[in-house]
Amino acid sequence: MKLTLEVWRQRDAVSPGAFETYEVTDATPEMTLLELLDRLNDQLVVEGREPVAFESDCREGICGCCGMDVDGRPHGPQANTPSCEQHVRSFQDGDRVVLEPLRSAAFPVVRDLVVDRSALDRVIQAGGHVAVDAGTAPDADATTVGYLTAEEALDFAACIGCGACVAACPNGSAMLFTGARITHLAKLPQTRAERGTRARSMVAQMEHDFGPCSTYGECAIVCPAGIPLSAIAAVGKERMRAFLRNRAD
């Protein structure tokens, strides 16, 4: 297969960027997008040119590093699939494919297709954790959790933090990401002591760095973990619960 790639090139966060055109003439349908970029970089290195910078780690849809925009869509044409599992067979021989970094004001470009997603880390740091005094943690099986509750909590915990939901949202919202984190912890008995504090602090940090929910649901379509839109509803629910309980206190 022959593919023409329009790739965003940008030296650093402050330098202006622009698209550059490359051709890969020996692509195969079973290649992933990342393997296609590997092949392109092999060509560029042989030619003595600077390879394209992009992120990857596990290449198994687990780590969330690989996110990029493909023809204007986070990750690529296949719904709910990370970039590392999007395949060249989604394109036709001779197609022109546009590759650029995830587009969001909250994700400044570091270099080429690499963006800084530390804004998501700040949401986690604000409350996506459990504080336990050293030496006081109970045994793992000391507190029982019902099967359905555990499964639902794990479903929300599956979020890989790739940032595709933010890039897909016209307002650059992180509601799906934040809702997944809040809901996961709110459902478990071991984490309920900090439930209200967690909701207030995480939502405040989210609103500081990201835009409001667009209510269109683009985020759920591109989410590789299949986080449902109910996670967005949970943000308002948990914040209201924290507010009412605080007033009652």
TrEMBL record:
Coiled coil: none annotated. Keywords: 2Fe-2S, 3Fe-4S, 4Fe-4S, Iron, Iron-sulfur, Metal-binding, Oxidoreductase, Tricarboxylic acid cycle. GO terms for biological process: respiratory electron transport chain; tricarboxylic acid cycle. PROSITE patterns: 4FE4S_FER_1, 4FE4S_FER_2. Residues 150-180 form the 4Fe-4S ferredoxin-type domain. GO terms for molecular function: 2 iron, 2 sulfur cluster binding; 3 iron, 4 sulfur cluster binding; 4 iron, 4 sulfur cluster binding; electron transfer activity; metal ion binding; succinate dehydrogenase (quinone) activity. Belongs to the succinate dehydrogenase/fumarate reductase iron-sulfur protein family. PANTHER family: SUCCINATE DEHYDROGENASE, SUCCINATE DEHYDROGENASE IRON-SULFUR PROTEIN. This is succinate dehydrogenase. It comes from Cellulomonas flavigena (strain ATCC 482 / DSM 20109 / BCRC 11376 / JCM 18109 / NBRC 3775 / NCIMB 8073 / NRS 134).
